[in-house]
Design a protein that fits this description.
about 280 residues; alpha+beta; Alpha-Beta Plaits; 2 domains; 4-stranded antiparallel sheet; 3-stranded antiparallel sheet; 7 helices; EC 3.1.26.4; RNA-DNA hybrid ribonuclease activity; ribonuclease H; DNA/RNA_pol_sf
């Protein structure tokens, strides 16, 4: 086994933009069929430019012929190669090794037919480019599926039920690190819950450097209310770029909040705490 740091050579690479989940959750949601695929690891099958990864070892100089583990731009290189290989295949959404295939139509039959045509084109391209898929992670013709931390449904966008369940089953924090873990998990669901930052304030105050750890009934109540808010998070409307947007904003003594609305329904929520200076 050969172990080596790649911090220096990792800087001499080109960058590639990796899409966010938000970019893949917009558009009409009526009569949609989805299939999810996972690509097998391609790091060891990605060739490197000559002399990019030269290593000095006891046995002499060695050059990596394939992309090694640990190189910092590996995710971007993978995203670029996969995106380019599947270019012009319609209905695909790609983040890392997760590929979502969508089909839409005015009826369920049209959506399934559109989905199946796109699926065939996708599989043909994978065969052409020698892209290997993980059969164990196939999910075919789904009305609902979880993709990159979001539950995609015909009704709208929901929080990942696994993340909601994990927070609901968490015991009360017993130290600052446990509070930080809780807030970190909660922050991932900010877009689904209005005024979430305000609800976290009592707990967040426990993480301040000058704060002495004391778990009171006030903290317990805030903790339980936070769980309830997340468990009852509303279903978000899919963003449609062709429809008018409305932004609702408000503020309190401790935080700022906003809601992005379309047709009177929430598309996303946002909130953050005010700093001491603010």
């Amino acid at each position: 086994m050969l172990c080596k740091g790649h911090s220096t050579s990792g800087k001499a690479t080109t960058q590639w933009s990796v899409n966010s989940a938000e970019e893949h959750t917009k558009g009409p949601n009526r009569n949609v069929r989805r299939s999810e695929r996972s690509v097998q690891s391609v790091a060891e099958r990605t060739t490197l430019q000559r002399n990019v990864k030269r290593n000095q070892t006891k046995g002499g100089r060695k050059i990596w012929r394939r992309m090694p583990m640990g190189i910092s731009p590996a995710p971007e290189i993978f995203q670029r190669k996969l995106t380019q290989a599947l270019d012009n295949v319609p209905g695909l959404y790609i983040i890392a090794d997760d590929i979502l295939i969508t089909g839409q139509g005015e009826t369920q039959e049209e959506a399934e037919r559109d989905h199946d045509e796109k699926l065939k084109r996708f599989l043909d391209r994978c065969r052409e480019k020698n892209i290997k898929l993980n059969a164990e992670k196939f999910r075919l013709r789904q009305k609902e599926t979880t993709y990159i931390g979001h539950r995609l449904t015909t009704d709208g966008l929901k929080a990942d039920p696994e993340k909601v369940r994990a927070i609901g089953q968490m015991p009360a924090p017993t130290d600052v690190k446990a509070v930080q873990r809780l807030i970190g998990m909660v922050n991932y669901l900010t877009k689904f819950c209005p005024h979430l930052s305000d609800q976290c304030k009592v707990l967040r105050d426990l993480t301040h450097k000058d704060s002495e750890w004391t778990w009171t009934t006030e903290h317990e109540e805030a903790f339980l209310n936070l769980k309830e808010t997340i468990a009852n998070a509303p279903v978000l409307r899919y963003y449609n770029p062709e429809e008018e947007l409305t932004v609702q904003c408000d503020a309190s003594d401790t935080g700022l909040g906003a809601a992005l609305m379309q047709m009177g329904k929430p598309v996303a929520f946002a909130s953050r705490a005010l700093t001491q200076t603010e």
